C-alpha cells in the first residue's frame, strides 16, 4: 500500500516549454507601426473575450519578453501551454486563451523601412 504523494509518474514531467514561434507571413506587407497598432488593439480588447485580466497581463508580459523570462512568467502565473508557441494556453481553472501570431513574433514580410 502507498499513499498518494506528489511524486511524478512516468510521463508527467512532459510539461510544454515555451518555444519561439514558427516564421509566418502576413497576407500583405506590413510595417512596424501597423504591427504595433494591431498588437495594442489586441491587448486592449483581449480581457473582453473572457478569462482573468491578470492572466492576460501575464501573457502579454511573456509575449513581449525573451524566451527564458517568458517561461518564468508562464510558470509563475500557472499558465498551461497547449502549444509551445503560446498560441493556445489555459489557466489553472481551464479557461482557454488564444493568442494570434502577430502578438508573438514579427512576420517574415515586415517592412522595416517605415
TrEMBL record:
Q: Where does the sequence pass through the membrane?
A: none
Q: What is this protein called?
A: DC-UbP/UBTD2 N-terminal domain-containing protein
Q: PANTHER family under this entry? A: UBIQUITIN DOMAIN CONTAINING 1 PROTEIN-RELATED (PTHR13609)
Where in this protein does the record put region Disordered?
Answer: 1-25
Domain DC-UbP/UBTD2 N-terminal as annotated: residue spans: 16-112
InterPro entries, per database record: DC-UbP/UBTD2_N, DC-UbP/UBTD2_N_sf, UBTD1/2
Q: List, alphabetically, the Pfam families matched.
A: UBD
Source species, domain of life: Eukaryota
Amino acid at each position: 500500500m502507498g499513499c498518494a504523494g506528489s511524486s511524478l509518474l512516468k510521463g508527467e514531467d512532459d510539461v510544454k516549454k515555451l518555444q519561439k514561434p514558427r516564421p509566418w507571413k502576413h497576407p500583405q506587407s506590413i510595417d512596424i507601426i501597423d504591427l504595433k497598432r494591431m498588437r495594442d488593439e489586441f491587448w486592449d480588447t483581449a480581457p473582453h473575450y473572457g478569462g482573468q485580466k491578470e492572466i492576460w497581463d501575464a501573457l502579454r508580459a511573456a509575449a513581449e519578453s525573451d524566451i527564458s523570462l517568458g517561461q518564468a512568467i508562464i510558470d509563475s502565473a500557472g499558465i498551461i501551454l497547449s502549444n509551445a508557441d503560446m498560441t493556445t494556453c489555459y489557466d489553472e481553472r481551464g479557461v482557454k486563451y488564444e493568442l494570434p501570431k502577430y502578438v508573438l513574433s514579427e512576420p517574415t514580410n515586415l517592412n522595416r523601412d517605415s
